[in-house]
Amino acid sequence: MATSKPKPAKADAASPSSRVELKERTRLRLIEPALTLIGQGRGYSSLSLREITREAGVVPAAFYRHFRDLDELGLALVEMGGVTLRHLLREARRDGLSPTDMLRTSVLIYKRYVEERSLVFRFLAGERGGGSPVIRQAIRTEESHFASEMAQDLRALGTLPDLSSPALHMICGLVVTTMLNAASDILDLPKGRPKQEQELVDNFVHQFRVVFLGARFWRER
Amino acid sequence: MATSKPKPAKADAASPSSRVELKERTRLRLIEPALTLIGQGRGYSSLSLREITREAGVVPAAFYRHFRDLDELGLALVEMGGVTLRHLLREARRDGLSPTDMLRTSVLIYKRYVEERSLVFRFLAGERGGGSPVIRQAIRTEESHFASEMAQDLRALGTLPDLSSPALHMICGLVVTTMLNAASDILDLPKGRPKQEQELVDNFVHQFRVVFLGARFWRER
DNA sequence: TGTACATCAGTGAACGCGCGTTCACTGATGTAC
DNA sequence: TGTACATCAGTGAACGCGCGTTCACTGATGTAC
User: Fold this and answer.
1) How confident is the model at residue A1 (pLDDT cuts 50, 70, 90)?
2) A194 and A87, same structural domain?
3) What gap in Å lies between CA A139 and CA A156, rounded to an integer?
4) How many structural domains compose chain B?
5) Do A102 and A195 have their domain in common?
């Protein structure tokens, strides 16, 4: 599958052309197969430059017009992951939260979100613990930003009004790591096993409930 | 460092010999450099067979006397990780828990434990999210066992006596993922930054406190 | 609008290198008698 | 205890292969006049 031979990169779509647009498009054509390969269960650090350019339908040397090396492409993937996370928060903000069974609803929304963007989440979940130190660090930074934004949102919503900002941030950190952990589990779910799926969602919901329960009773020291 | 040339494997220590012992020793000599390389910030899936045998001071072909391929060696590392986790629980059980500031004490003990066995924890933290599916699955199984044992121990200690067994297991699962997450953070701590170290420990302690607070107020549905 | 020149994304060939795996081998350990 | 044979962990050489990187190149897009 996806074994297209290197063809001229331009002969792709009804060209809106312009050198800049063309270059940007090739850049994306390099990022995409990297994600695809990760989605097939490969660790990012085991990908090769040639493999990526081959999938992209571009000559290996062309890679260097866009990235200095694989680490730099990895950072682009992290950036993409960051965008995905921010987008998730924005959606959650827009939808508001139905007060009944809010946690379960959120979990289900999150699950669908992860499944629809499985490649990015596979990358984040896979590289955030292992992988190259520079990429790991970058992912952690994104996570921290995500936790901060989440804290702001909870503040704005008046959830947990008694918590200090540091405490709120700490709790959001816990939520974020739990979320990303769950992402990994969600992606490894075997298809067509609704029972197992149900169990995982329940477990996830319960864990969140514990965390928010703890947060409600948290007292500053 | 560690660039020893391939020498005859036997000429190592005052030989207790015996074919079986000798083979076992070489097996360990293959596992060890794999861990060392991981400790240097390399993902397991980026290691090569030749690299490992080179560090082990053994010819590449010798690898096949011990493992079918790199995945099989990876599973041996997982096994080692499992042993390490079980050992941690055994120690915790033996030491009991001083009732005052129990959580903080546990966290500090855990931190030291992780630092002293940094290689194994680096491996577990690194491969449990990404890496080869078979290894990821194996680590998850170990985690689950670990959570079960922890649940049993808490039961035996009479902690959280009102929780049902499934609920207790769910909470231990949350604790375990938080622990392994923290392991990754602990290992990435820059040396000689006591302030940052202190912050991380505090954060970790607080997160645990939230979880156990939530557990105390948990009511079955 | 037309022409002459500059830019630069992508090409294709070449390089030296480390890789995983195979194979027949050696020689110490183990076993049968 | 001694001898003859079996076992098998580790050797060393060889293989074909994909790798990252370099280089001079081509030809379409962009710019100056």
Assistant:
1) very low
2) yes
3) 26
4) 2
5) yes
- Nearest of B185, B211, B206 to residue B197 by alpha carbon: B185
Taking CA–CA distances from A167, the nearest residue in chain B reads B206
Residues A40 and A125 in one domain: no
Q: Per residue in B126-161, pLDDT tens?
A: 999 988 999 999 999 999 999 999 999 999 999 999
Q: Is the CB atom of residue A18 positioned under 7 angstroms from any atom of strand D? A: yes
Taking an 8 Å cut-off on Cβ atoms, the answer to whether A133 and B206 are in contact is no
Q: In Å, what is the CA distance from A19 to each residue of A16, A22, A76, B129?
A: 10, 5, 21, 39
Same domain, B26 and B121: no
User: CB-based burial of residue A215 (10 Å sphere; 0-12 exposed, 13-18 middle, 19+ buried)?
Assistant: buried
A127, A171, A203 ranked by CB distance to B210: nearest: A171
The CA-based dihedral angle spanning residues A124, A130, A133, A137, taken in that order and rounded to the nearest 10 degrees:
40
**Rounded mean pLDDT of A105-133?**
96
Q: Check B174 against A210: CB less than 8 A apart.
A: yes
Q: Which of B38, B67, B96 is the last residue of a domain?
A: B67
Domain assignment of residue A139, given as a range: 71-216
Classify residue B189 by its DSSP letter: P
- Shared domain for B140 and B56, answered yes or no, is no
Q: Do A203 and B44 touch (CB under 8 A)?
A: no
For B2, residues 6+ apart whose C-beta sits below 8 A from its C-beta are B33, B36, B55
Confidence of residue A145 (pLDDT cuts 50, 70, 90): very high
Question: Is there a domain that residue B101 lies in?
Answer: yes
A12 pLDDT higher than 60: no
What is the pLDDT confidence band of residue B99, given thresholds at 50, 70 and 90?
A: low
CB nearest to B207's CB, from A122, A170, A217: A170
**pLDDT-derived band at B30, boundaries 50, 70, 90:** very high
A82 and A30 within one domain: no
Same-domain pairing of B185 and B78: yes
pLDDT in tens, A52-87: 999 999 999 999 999 999 999 999 999 999 999 999
Q: Which nucleotides of C are covered by protein (CB under 7 A)?
A: 8-14, 18-24, 28-30
Looking at strand D, which nucleotides approach a protein CB closer than 7 A? 8-14, 18-24, 28-30
Q: Any idea what the CATH number is for the domain that residue B97 is in?
A: 1.10.357.10
Q: Which residue of B has its CA nearest to A217?
A: B213
Contact: B218, A213; criterion CB under 8 Å: yes
Residues A85 and A102 in one domain: yes
Residue A166 CA, nucleotide C8 C1', distance (Å):
50
- The letter for the amino acid at B75 is L
Nearest chain A residue to B221, by CA:
A206
Query: Could you tell me if residue B114 is inside a domain?
Result: yes
Query: CB B46 to CB A46 under 8 A?
Result: yes
